[in-house]
Every structure is written in structure tokens, then in C-alpha cells.
Amino acid sequence: MTEADLIIIGAGPAGMSAAATAARGGARVLILDEQPRPGGQIYRDVGVAAKHRPWLGPDYAAGAALLEALDHDGIRIETGVTVWRVEVGPRVVWSRDGVSRIAQAPQLLIATGAQERPVPFPGWTLPGVMPAGAAQVLMKSAGLLPRGAVLAGSGPLLYLVAVQLIDAGAPPRALVETQRRTDLLRAARHLPRGLRDAATLWKGLGLLRRIAAAGIPRHPAASGFRAETASDGGIVFSFTSRGRAQRIETPLLLTHQGVVPSTHMSRSAGVEHVWDHVQKAVRPAVDGWGAAGVPGIHVAGDGAGIAGAEAARVGVQRGAKHQCYAEKTFPDAEIVLYGTQEEVFRDLALGRIDAQLSDSLIAQESFLSTEEGADYTFLDGDHIDVECYGEGVGIAVRKGDEELARAFSDAIAAIRENGTYAAINDAYFPFDIYGGRPEGM
Ligand SMILES: Cc1cc2nc3c(=O)[nH]c(=O)nc-3n(C[C@H](O)[C@H](O)[C@H](O)COP(=O)(O)OP(=O)(O)OC[C@H]3O[C@@H](n4cnc5c(N)ncnc54)[C@H](O)[C@@H]3O)c2cc1C
Known about the structure:
Blueprint: E1 2-3, E2 6-9, H1 13-24, E3 29-33, H2 46-49, H3 58-61, H4 64-68, E4 75-79, E5 82-87, E6 91-96, E7 99-104, E8 107-110, E9 114-116, E10 129-131, H5 132-142, E11 150-154, H6 156-167, E12 174-177, H7 181-188, H8 191-194, H9 198-213, E13 218-219, E14 222-229, E15 235-241, E16 244-250, E17 253-257, E18 259-261, H10 264-268, E19 273-276, E20 281-284, E21 297-299, E22 313-317, H11 321-329, E23 334-338, H12 341-349, E24 355-357, H13 360-368, H14 386-389, H15 402-417, H16 420-428
Parallel strand pairs: 1-7, 2-3, 2-8, 3-4, 8-21, 10-17, 11-12, 11-17, 12-13, 22-23, 22-24
Antiparallel strand pairs: 5-6, 6-7, 9-18, 14-15, 15-16, 19-20
Helix pairs in contact: 6-9
Bound molecules: flavin-adenine dinucleotide.
Flavin-adenine dinucleotide binds at residues 9-15, 32-35, 40-42, 82-83, 111-116, 133, 136-137, 157, 160, 259, 265, 301-303.
């Protein structure tokens, strides 16, 4: 059995960065990856391909620095191996050339990345139809370039592959895009937040400009995909664009509808998974440190959730009533779950999350009134929801003693009316401890 301080499954940017950081801190790290060389999806084969395939672009070549950081005595890399089981321990079971081995360490990091979102349509399994990401794998690892391909679907990878093909002298025949004008309008409301990452937006606009300059025909608002085998063995691709039926013949149809976290290993490790409303995908429930709620197991990189600049991150204690409220009220935000409230406050102070939800009193006493919370404040308005929080705090009286219940209610109404309640409130709390009332109550 192999022993280490930290086992990392996946040698993509997340796994490589974690390995280099842990090794610099003195840990013995074992990295396992099923590819022949480290790099992951984005930097696949960067060590050998960056020099020979300049058309893969400067972002690709930038991965070489991560690779160099792996050259450390504390890091051992096993490539060409498939991890197929994660057990309590944590222990991982992996195979190479049909021989299985076991490795054990106090800490395990699952950094297995993302996979393309599978979206079936008639003919999607025909020879001559494949995911655009898979074609990019062949471009990176073998220098294979498809001629006259049609790219169909949506997402940044579609545009990136189009530009890489243009630069490699194998421009695609057409770009068939599923997003509609209404999708763009819906996305426009995220623009102010998106501008915080203007460099990425600029990069995206640059890709679109390059596609336009190369004269690649674009078919927007496309739907009703259907692929059939043509008489010459190619593909007849039919679809509707802006309400008009279209038909294109191509030797290779490359489809793509974004990427989703690859959860095979985190599921195998017994990690809890949640539905991500922003990414519309299932992802492991991890806190801001990647801790996955199972002793010694962490998840990082795209496998923990596709990093999206547009999503605010709201922290909340796992299983608390605030989780219900956060998921219901902020469907566009990324809800980050934590084991304890202390961890939520710590990550808020470190800037790992943008906001948090907890009881007002706890937020005030444990965070806002401390040095770390000096630059933070309550969000305006009452956050009340009978479904998640119930009807609030009450005073219990003996069953049927309506006279006493009425006396309490009248007394509370009277002190709220004459300002006594406000005076007591203000002496102790910088917010209204009484709270608001849900509509209709
Ligand atoms: C097909 C594809 C192509 C992409 N191309 C680009 C691109 O060109 N540019 C870009 O910006 N983004 C690209 N992305 C997005 C990309 O996922 C991220 O930008 C980035 O690579 C994520 O880094 P990561 O370290 O989280 O995971 P990854 O880079 O995906 O690395 C995960 C690693 O885990 C290994 N692994 C997974 N399961 C196992 C297992 N069971 N046993 C052993 N090893 C395992 C994989 O071999 C892989 O090397 C692509 C995504 C996909 C799915």
C-alpha cells in the first residue's frame, strides 16, 4: 500500500496547484491521473504540445508554469492510472495495466474536473457526430484537425474551439448556436457583476470578433437538432434557426452545451451532493475550503462546481433553516454550505463568499461587532419566510387561557405603540429585533 500525507486525484490546474502548495508546506503528495501526462482538460499535454501547436493560444501555453511547479521532491505523480474506488480512510483504489493498487493518506483531494453536459438529440450517437470538447482533446493530444466541421450548441468552449480551428487553418463550416435573443436579455442583468471580470468578457468578445473576421456563418436561436448519415458517409445536420428550417452537410458535427462537474469520485466517496441552480447541475456540497463533510475528503476545481464569475457566493450553515431560505430567495447565487457558523464568518472575512445568512443576533455578536466584521453590515429589509422559518418566536401560555394570551398581545402592542419597545431595542441592538411580518399575517 502506498502512503502519503495527501493524495490528489486529478492533475489538472486544481490538482497541480494544490500539490505544489502542499509540497511547499512540507507534505508528501501523491497525484494520480488517468492521462499519460499532467495538465488536465485545459492544459492537456501542455508540456509537449505548447511549442508545436501555437494555434492552441497563449492561455494554453500559460499552463507550463503549473507543470514546472510539480518538479518538487515532495511530489510523486502516477499517470496513466484510473482511480475507480474511494473508501473510508480515506483510501483510494486505482489500476494501471490491469493491476490494482491501494493508496492511503490522512487527506484526499478530489480534483477530477468537469465533463461535457450530455444533451441527446436524434442522431447524436452516429459516427461523425461527437462532442466539441472531445475533438479539442484530439487537437491537443494528437494535433488532429477536423476539416469542414460544424460546431453546434452553446458555451464559451464552442467559440474557443472555433477560433483554435481558424488559427490552425481548418476553419469550421458554420456555427449553429442555441442561445436566443431572450437568453441574451436575461444574461444582460448580470452585466454589472460581469464587468468585475472584464478581462474574461473582453476575451469572449475577442473570440466573437475573430469568428466574424474569418467569415464563419452563424445560425442563432437554433433548435430541433437532427443528424442523419449522408450518402457519402458524412452527416446531414438539420435544425431550425430563427424559425427557418436549415440543412448543412458536414464530415463532422461537433456539439457542445457547456460543462458540468464530474462527480463520479465524490459520489463514490459518499459526499453529499446538491442541485446547483446557477449551473443547472449536481455538484458536491463543499465549504469554502473544499471540505466535503466526510473526514479527510476535499473537492476542488471544476469538480466542486464550475467557476462562474457571474454568480455571487452566499454562505450558510448546512441543514440550517437559512439554507432553505437562501436556496429559495437567491436562485441565481451559488449557495456555499458549511459545517459550522464560525466557518461561514471566517470565509466571509477572507472574501471567499460575498454574503452569508444566519440569525441576526449571531451575525451581530459573533461577526459584525468584531474587528473582522468592521467593513460589513446587514442587508436592508426583513428576511421572513413562513415556509423556511415558521411563524417566528412566540410566548406560550396554558392551552385555552385566551385572557392571558390577549394580555401579552395587548402589552406588546402598547409598548410598540408608545416607543418603549423601540427604546429597549435600541439600547441593545443596532437592528429591529422584532422583525417584520410576512404578508397577510
Ligand atoms: C473536454 C473539455 C475541454 C476543455 N477545454 C478547455 C479549454 O480549452 N480552455 C478552458 O479554459 N477550459 C476548458 N475546459 C474547462 C476546464 O474543465 C477547466 O478550465 C479546467 O481544466 C478545470 O480544471 P480542474 O483541475 O478542475 O480539472 P481538469 O483540468 O478537468 O483535470 C481533472 C483531471 O482529473 C483526471 N481524472 C478524472 N477522473 C479520474 C479518475 N477516476 N482517475 C484518475 N484521474 C482522473 C483527468 O484525467 C484530468 O486530468 C474544458 C473542459 C472540458 C470538459
